[in-house]
Design goal:
heterodimer; A: alpha+beta; eight-stranded mixed sheet; seven-stranded mixed sheet; 19 strands; B: alpha+beta; five-stranded antiparallel sheet; 2 helices; 26% helix
């Protein structure tokens, strides 16, 4: 554990663990946090994991830690590492097993008051159309050839099938299609998992949530994003399902076998890596991008099903039942990006694990309408609590590798949450607060209880204070669907 | 708590973790598999038994353990089967795991992957002990 007295205070919301702290560190660890949240983080392995990650070859200082940080395996959740593309490495464990786990936000013009009587029916219909739970397969059957296409073209495959619009793609990070995705080095085991799971939500902390826009803070940005006070919006939190999990599993195993070619010691095996310019590194990069494309396509299909549910429930009540894409953004991803390091444009592989890209005005690859303002940054709270829509800032590129927080961050272990919360009681409580709940497992629901997470408002206040993102809108849940 | 074989869940902020123990490595593999299935809260249905085999390269024990649990997770995810009986044998430098499996009942919780995080198999007295973290 790292003690508070080993962390240097820069300001009320910025802290540093100097690279002098441990001999193998190649970068400082910069933490964006309040003192209170930092104390919580220092109570588990979060900061030690950040220190371990700061020893990855080619890392450029600083290794960044977000206020929603919590202990993961190898690399902390809420960590960002920028690694020089010329002489650096790529680490599957620093991106995560759920490659391109991310959030999509869709907005409607349906006012809450107009819709509130239909919310039970909407929750049930969403639950029916969006398959969720352990071992549950999707209704969309694809061939191996189609899976290969999805690996290359991501959400564009869904457009070809009539399940996505041009606006959906434009308003997705990387336009929903990472250029170097290829199924070339993907195992049969991963393919077996990927084929039946396309268009499914899964279980765990993944969800579909209907929210009411409770407050608009930045009128101008909200208008550009299509967010209006008291109207319904929909969030989809999901990733690359078993396909991505297996790809990461396979490459961690392969890298551990080949590691002796370029390294001798690891602070944690989950930080195993390969040089970006090695055959192994290139193979992982292509497979990781393929899994990212699968995830973009998966969220696109879930959005298509959600639109169908909105149409079924609201088409007879209103003409404005369409769900418009606001944005789709990843929070577990490795991306090649360019930053100015000592006034030299430098290509780096940004490893974001539990961290969201937060480009400001003029950011590379932003859709035309967002380019003057910055990209939407989606920060869901825990189940039953509020969420935030933020906007990326120029400053994020200078201090946090163009990144921001991704959620509230866990506070309590899952086993403890299950001991202190009963799923059925929680469901009743949340429904008493006007939130419709559809959940596959009461135990799973208890693990995701609001009290198991930090306060998302506090997390967002910190990123706003340090200037890596600004507040646009505040969302309040009205229906949650969980596997 | 069974003193010779067993597993228990231990606290982990975001993921799931078990500690398992057994007299031999093969028995430890089985305890870890039982622990993983217990975390998933998956129960076998009443359907017919099927047999599934896994052949594992006999490499370092930690790698073999993660490889076995990962392959079991893959079978569970794809075929929706859960093991009820395990038999592990060793021949020609490889381990063969034979499992009697049944389709599992709906419900349960998802484990995404088996991790190598801080994984060490250590001898404590006459028993082997290990801790495994699962990504959920």
């Amino acid at each position: 554990m790292i003690r508070m007295d080993q962390i240097e205070k820069i300001s009320d919301f910025e802290w540093v663990i100097s690279r002098k702290f441990r001999g193998d560190m190649l970068a400082d660890v910069r933490i964006f946090s309040s003192q209170e949240l930092l104390k919580i983080a220092s109570g588990d392995l979060s900061l030690e994991q950040a220190v371990n990650a700061s020893a990855l070859p080619g890392i450029i200082s600083p290794m960044v830690v977000m206020p929603d940080v919590h202990q993961g395996y190898g690399f902390p959740i809420g960590g960002v590492a920028a690694i020089n593309a010329k002489n650096g490495v790529i680490s599957p464990g620093a991106i995560g097993y759920d490659i391109n786990c991310g959030v999509r936000l869709l907005a409607s013009s349906i006012e809450f008051e107009q819709a509130k009587d239909q919310l039970p029916s909407l929750a049930t219909t969403l639950n029916q159309y969006c398959p969720s739970g352990v071992g549950v397969e999707g209704d969309i059957r694809i061939s191996k050839k189609e899976l290969d296409e999805i690996c290359c073209s991501g959400a564009r495959w869904a457009m070809k099938k009539g399940m996505a619009s041009d606006d959906d793609l434009r308003r997705t990070e990387e336009a929903g299609e990472m250029a170097k995705g290829t199924s070339e080095n993907i195992s049969h085991k991963a393919i077996e998992r990927g084929l039946p799971q396309l268009g499914t939500l899964g279980a765990g902390n993944h969800f579909i949530e209907v929210d009411r826009v409770d407050q608009i803070i930045d009128e101008n940005a909200a208008k550009i994003m299509g967010l209006f006070k008291d109207c319904l919006v929909l969030q989809i939190h999901c990733g690359s399902r078993g396909f991505g999990h297996q790809i990461c599993t396979d490459f961690v195993q392969q890298f551990l076998v080949s590691f002796r070619k370029w390294g001798s010691d690891l602070p944690d095996r989950e930080l195993v890596y390969a040089p970006l310019d090695s055959n192994e590194g290139k193979a992982y990069l292509g497979a990781m991008q393929a899994a990212a494309n699968y995830a973009f396509c998966n969220r696109q299909l879930l959005a298509h099903f959600a639109r169908k549910a909105f149409s079924d429930v609201f088409s007879k009540k209103t003409h404005n039942f369409h769900l418009r894409q606001v944005y789709d953004v990843a929070h577990n991803m490795g991306k090649m990006e360019t930053y100015s390091i000592n006034n030299i444009a430098t290509r780096v592989c940004v490893h974001r694990k539990g961290a969201t890209r937060a480009f400001g005005p003029g950011g590379e690859g932003l859709p035309q309408e967002y380019s003057p303002f910055g990209q939407p940054v989606l920060v869901p709270g825990s189940m039953g609590t509020d969420s935030w829509v933020l906007i990326g800032s120029e400053k994020s590129k200078n201090i946090s590798w163009g990144s921001c927080c991704h959620g509230a961050g866990r506070l309590m272990s899952r086993s403890k949450a299950k001991h202190v919360v009963r799923g059925d009681r929680l469901k009743a409580e949340l429904e008493g607060e006007g939130i419709e709940i559809r959940a596959g497992s009461m135990g799973g629901l208890a693990e995701e209880a609001p009290q198991a997470y930090k306060d998302v408002d506090e997390v967002v206040a910190i990123v706003e204070h340090v200037g890596i993102a600004g507040k646009v809108a505040h969302l309040r849940p009205v229906a949650v669907i969980k596997g | 708590m069974n003193k010779r074989h067993g597993f228990q869940e231990i606290e982990h902020t975001a993921d799931k973790e078990i500690e398992a123990w057994a007299p031999t490595f093969e028995e430890l593999m089985i305890e870890c598999a039982k622990g993983m299935i217990s975390l998933m809260a998956i129960k076998p249905g009443s359907g017919a038994k099927v047999i599934r085999d896994l052949i594992l390269p006999d490499i370092e024990n930690e790698m073999t353990l993660v490889g076995f649990l990962g392959d079991l997770l893959q079978i569970m995810d794809v075929q929706h089967l859960v093991p009820t009986v395990y038999k592990i044998s060793k021949s020609k430098g490889r381990k063969k795991v034979e499992m009697e499996m049944k389709k599992f009942l709906p419900g349960g919780r998802e484990i995404k992957a088996v991790t190598h995080h801080n994984l060490r198999i250590i001898q404590k007295g006459y028993l082997l002990h290990t801790q495994v973290v699962f990504d959920v």
